[in-house]
Each structure stands twice: as C-alpha cells, then as structure tokens.
Amino acid sequence: MRRRRTILLIVGIALLVAAAWLVLGRTRSVERDTRSVAGAGGVELEATLLVPQRATREDPRPAVLVAHGLGGDQGDTRRMARSLARAGFVVRTWSARGAGGSEGKVGIAAEEGEVADVSALIDELAQHPEVARDSPNDPRVAIVGTSQGGGVALLAAATDDRIDAVVPIFAWSSLLDALEPGGVLKLGWASSLFAAGAGEERSADPCGNLTQQLCDAWTESSAAGQFTPEARELLEEMSPVRVLDEIEAPTLIVQGQYDSLFDFEQATRLADGLREAHTPYRVEWMRAGHDLALDERGAKYLDAAVIRWLDRYLLDDRDEAPGPRLAIELGARRGHAHAPTVPLETTSRLLRLHPDVDVDAADRIRFANPPSGRPSAVTTLPGLGDLTRSELALQVPEGQRARFVSDPASEGLEIIGATKVSLVVAGTRPTGTLFVRLVDVSPGGQVQVPRGLVTPLRVEEVPALDSGQGARFEVRLTPVAWRLAPGHRIGIEVGSTDAGYAPDPIPAEWAVSIAEPDHALQVPVARDPTRTSDTFESGASWTTLLWTAAAVFGAAVLAAILMSVGRHRSRDRIQEPVWRKVPVRAADLAKRYRGGFQAVEDVSFRVDAGTIVGLVGPNGAGKTTVLRMLLGLVRPTQGVAHLYGQRVRPGIPMLRRTGVLVEGPGLLPHRTGRQHLHRYASATGRPGDAASVDAALATVDLLADADRRVGTWSQGMRQRLGIAQALLGEPDLVVLDEPTNGLDPAQIRHLRQIIRSIAASGRTVLVSSHLLGELERVCTHVVLIARGRVLAAGTLEEVVADHADLEDAFLAVTEGSDA
C-alpha cells in the first residue's frame, strides 16, 4: 500500500511540474544588455535590450520597441518591458532624444528626430539573430508607447511599413486640438509639456533640451496667449490624424478616463481614421491617464491586454481573438462594458434643468469674468486630475458661474459618452471664453465634476446683455464614463474661468440660460453594454487559460494524493503556508440551507494584517453567515476559509488568536461582567487573569460596573461587554458583527477610537455593519455584499472611486449587479 501511494505521489508531482512548466514557460530568465545605439543622423541613444532565454538564433522571437513619455526616460518603461520579455518577446527600450543619457534635442515627435529614430532602432534590431525577421532588414516588430511615445509610435507606423503592430497608450490624434481645443489655449498643460521637454539642464538657454524650432514656437505662443500660425503648423505636423490612412499595422488604442490632456475624443478620431483605412483596431478606455497613474491592478490588466494584442498580430496567433472594438472600465470594480462600435452606441435621455440660484427677469443666471481672469476656478491641474473632491479645490464664488441641475435621479444612470446642451448667451462683450463642466450633485449638496473634465467654449457675436436677446451655442461636452447614483442630480456649470486654460483678462458680465423648448441636458445612457469581469478582457488567451486549467488540475491531483497520504496527520496542521501572514482568506464560500435557500454564493476576499476591513451590506445580505463560516461556526456548502493559513474547522488553534463578537455576546443575567469574562477566558483558552480582564473592561469603560449583574445593565452596556469579550487578551484578529447595536453616539465614537487603536498596533479588525456611514469613517478596506454575493472589494478609496461616498458606491454597484 505504501509503495502504491509513493507511485501516486510521484505521478502527481510530475503532473504538477508539467503544468507549471507550461504556465511558466513564458517567464524564463531574461538577459539584459544596456549600451548606446545609433539613432537617426548618428545621434547616440541610451538603450537596453531584453532577450528572453528561449529567443535564440535557432528559434528567433518577434521584437517590441517600448517608448516612454515626455520628461521621462527608458526607466519609466521597465515594468512593461519586463512583462513583454517574460511573455517571450525581445524588447528594446531607449531614452528619447534629450532624455536620460541620450544625445540630441527634444522635438517631441519630430519627423527627422524621434520618429526617424524608430526606423534606426528597427534597422539595429534586424542585426540581432535572436529577432525573427520577415526579410533580411525587416524584423518582426511592434512598438508600444505611452504619451509622447504613443504619438511617436503612431507616426512611425505611418512612415515605416516594417512595424507589424502598434499600441499607443494615453496618446494623441491631434496635438493641436488637445492643446488648443475650440481655439482656447490649454495653458497649464502646454506649459507643463514645454517644461518637461526642456528637461533639467541648468543653463542660460531658456530652451533647455528643446529644439530651437519647438522653443521658438512655444515662446512666441506663450507671449501671445495663443498658438501662433507657425506653432499650429508644427503641432499639426506631429499629429497622427493626418497620416492615419497610411497606418496598416493593427493598432490597440489605450485611452484614459482621467485625462485632461488627451481625452477620449483623441481615441475616437484615431478609431475613425483606422476604420476608414481598413486597419484592425481596438480601444481600451481605462480608469487612468495623465491625471491618475495606473494602480497595480490596472497595470497588470494593461500588460495582459497588450500581450494579447501582440500574440494575435505579432505572433500571428489566430486562436487569439482580438476582442471587442471597445472595452470601458467601469467604476467601483464593476468589471468592463464592451461594445462593437467606437464610440459606444447610447440612448439619449433628456433631463430638464433648473437654475440653482436666482435668475434675472429673462430667466437667466448672471455672472462675471473678473479682471485678469483671477481668481480662477480650479477643476483640474496638469497631472493632478479632478480636484473637486479634494481640499485643493477652489470654491468658485457664485458670482463667477451659472449652474443648472436636474431633478434627483430615480434610478442609476450609466453615462458613457458626450453630453450635449444648448446655451443661450448674452454679455457686455461680443466675444469671450466660457467653460462648461458636467456636474454631479449628491443629496448632501456635494458637487463633483466627473473626471475633472472641462469643455472650453469660445463665444462670438454675443448680443448685448440688456438687449433682451441671446446667441445660441450647441455645446458637446468632453466624453466621460460615469455612474450617476440614484438620488443624485446631474447638470452643467458654466464658468468664466478655469485654471487649466489661458485666462481672459478683460472684465465682462455674462448671462446664460438653457435653450428652449426643452431646457434640457441630452445625456448619453448606455444601451445595456455587455459586462464582464476582468478575467477574459485582461488579455488571458484561451491557450493560457488551458495551461492554467492544466496547472489547477495537476495541483488538484497532487492535493488529493497528499490528503490520502497524510490523512493520519493532525487535522489542525497548516494547510496553506503561503497564507500564514494573512489573517483571513475566503475563497469561493457558499452556503445553501435545507429547502434550497442560498444564503451566500461565491464569496471571496482577504483581510491583510494591520487593516480595518468593513463587510458592508444591508440586513439579510449574508454578512453574518460569512462571518460564521470564517469562524468555523457554520460549515460552508462549498469553498474554503483560512485563518492565518490554517483551514477553518471547529476548534482549530488559530481561533485562539481571534476575538469575536457575532450575534451578541450570549450573557447570563445572574453573572457579573467580570465573572462573564473570566468564564469566557476559561472556556476559550484566552488569557483570563485579573489584569487582562480589567484591561478589557477599562477599554470599553465598564470597569466601574464590572461587579454588577449584567441583568441590570442597559443594552448598550451589554453590547460593550461583548466588545470587551472580543478584545480579551489582545487577540491578533478581532471580528465584530454589527458592534454598534445599542450604542449611543458617544459610545460609537469611542468604538471607532478602539478599532483604530487596534489597527495602529499592527493587529487586524474585520467588522460587519449595515451602517455605511460609520464604516466609511473607520475602515481602510471594504467588501460590499448584497444578496449573498460580493459586488466590490478593495481599499476604501478604490471602492468609493468616483462616487461621493460609500453609500453612493454601494447603491451604484447594487443596481449595477441587477443589470
């Protein structure tokens, strides 16, 4: 029998190793070679070559050029480069002209500079025997670039037909339209780009690292307050929109939702041009951009999506589906919306708007443009994004803006696209600049500008203020992806200033109203777009999924064998060493009761050490059932739970590290509070000496009443004794189920202080409640649960995301889960 088990064990290990070899085959070691290479015209460029181990002369691999953004260097591309190299591609990174250790001057995307350098780098790649080639001087190559690198990638793909795939990330279609939308100079971003290009060179030359042509164009434009004809011509030369019909390389366009520099209109123009040229393309609209850096989760998603695109078009893997035309990342981790067209087809909904302040006799809101355009409304600043939810935001005086809002929404709206409105304007001047913002007004009156995006409006031939007439202007606002929560109001704000744009220095008074007959905002509401989780759209190919399934199968076989071999061992042994430092782990927990009632289904989350995690949901959501499964009080129908790496079963040793208050403390009325804690300590093996008991009682302010029978106590006192019971012996993990029941406001505030002090000491708290406002004030992480399912999980900031508060986020994901 022992010999048979040994053979089975060896077979299981072999299966697991084979599956792991398939899964990890892409992540073999990578050789790194850093040296300068020649760019166009002999300019020396600081460059690095990453060669995966399996790329050899006998088995050459395709190559990928990875380009960085303006103001950075090749170090900024390290994460993406490593990911591509682990995927089996030969990767070339380099510092663009004037950046890092590279020679030359910064031209941003000059045809004879940065764009020509790409062709020189392709020539150099063709000399490496590890790089696959279609012909002697034609390596199989793609280019991936971010911001400046993305614009260069597109222009290079139009001029060098050896490029087989291109991925512009947070890039532009028209640099002129991006920096001077509607003829209004985006002064903040233009200045930032000029400074980033000029670099850190300390000299008397104001141009720094910029080419003389670029420096002169910006210097003259800055003095004029708008781009000169020469500057416009230069920006147009650096705009891929003029050469989209020459791009044949399949293009994955990645655009940012948090991007006041290159908004989604840039992506739609790229998509339109590529579609007309019959070039394969796809658009990813991600919750990141120039105003918000990718978090770890977003970076992994992006890397996987890029690899999937390159597998399809660089490796010519026809089993790899290109994916839907458009993928839109939704807020509060609700997955992605997919659509077959760019932009997404939407249904227009008219929402009648009302002034939110007093109007004049003509039903208009009057406001002023201050001298020199100061103080300015601060909605966005380059690289800082939406400031309307932060203390940095400058509250614009009512006298400098007009706001019109709808009635509260009876249901949540998934707004995806460009909102439209018709304005009627009169003024003391015939010309001027106004700024139109979409606004989301919470029931509490908090005003937020979705994604911090502003649309400038240049008005001309405006009738005199007291003429009784007005000029009509059709305004198409910058596209957004935004969830309007139930009870919120949507509207627009028309202002005379914005800190991101060149100010209008001449004082003026304006009067604005919403045009008849509807006095309405035209809102693009998504037509039930296909929603998925991140799994498929994250770039995981079917081949990879099969490899993963093989690994899981091998692991399952091995686990079954090990269980049969080690059945005689203690049931209390650590089952998952990798989770030993994680206080709580729930994996696919489900509980079905007799009669078929499904209380909980597919619940997965983790609680890391030193955090305060709120299990949030309405009464009946399944919170208590989840806690009971985590504590071994209820056996799950499926799934597994771990406490510090130990699989949860009744009586496991790890429960001694856990303090618990679930469904009340279970007090006997004839015992005193002190007696109850001593008996509880004796029954559970917790520290029960006098000092420990007194410390727990003192923490909840019950030391003076400790020797009274609990039958004489109030409900709040009994609840506090239950909390003291959970805190007895200073456990590493404290689990509290609806701990505020029966507590008055002062006691609730004291409880918050207790919870924070536990986390500050490095210990961990898992607390469930239906009081979202209370949890938002204390938790570092939240798990939103309703109808027995986890709808969202992550840090408090991630889950609240673009919502006013935790309640709005919960309402949004709850309603979204019904769609």
Q: Report strand order across the widest sheet.
A: 1-2-4-3-7-8-9-10-11-12-29
The 3D shape can be described as globular
List the total number of helices.
Answer: 20
What percent strand?
Answer: 25-35%
Radius of gyration, in Å, reads 31 Å
Largest sheet: 11 strands, mixed
**Spans of 5+ residues with little confidence (pLDDT < 50)?**
21-27, 388-394, 534-545, 561-574
Distance between the termini: 55 Å
Q: Which structural class matches the secondary elements?
A: alpha+beta
**Helical amount among residues, as a percent range?**
25-40%
Task: Please characterize this protein's 3D structure.
By secondary structure, the chain is of the alpha+beta class. The protein has 20 helices and 39 strands. It has an eleven-stranded mixed β-sheet, with helices on both faces. Strands 13, 15, 20, 24, 27 and 28 form a six-stranded antiparallel β-sheet that branches. The longest helix is centred in the C-terminal third of the chain and has 24 residues. The protein starts with a helix and ends with a helix. About 5% of the residues have low confidence.
Summarize the structure.
29% of the residues lie in helices and 26% in strands. With 819 residues, the chain is α+β, with helices and mostly antiparallel strands.
Structure characteristics:
six-stranded antiparallel beta sheet, 819 residues, alpha+beta, globular, 39 strands
Topology:
Layout: H1 2-24, E1 30-38, E2 44-52, E3 63-67, H2 78-86, E4 90-94, H3 114-125, E5 133-135, E6 138-139, E7 141-146, H4 148-159, E8 163-169, H5 175-179, H6 187-198, H7 212-224, H8 229-237, E9 251-256, H9 264-276, E10 281-286, H10 296-313, E11 326-329, E12 336-339, E13 346-352, E14 354-355, E15 365-369, E16 380-381, E17 385-386, E18 401-405, E19 413-417, E20 420-427, E21 432-441, E22 447-448, E23 454-459, E24 471-476, E25 480-484, E26 489-495, E27 508-514, E28 520-526, E29 530-532, H11 534-537, H12 542-565, E30 584-592, E31 598-607, E32 612-616, H13 623-630, E33 638-643, E34 646-647, E35 658-661, H14 673-684, H15 690-699, H16 715-727, E36 733-737, H17 745-760, E37 764-769, H18 772-776, E38 781-786, E39 789-795, H19 796-800, H20 806-818
Helix pairs in contact: 1-12, 3-4, 14-15, 15-16
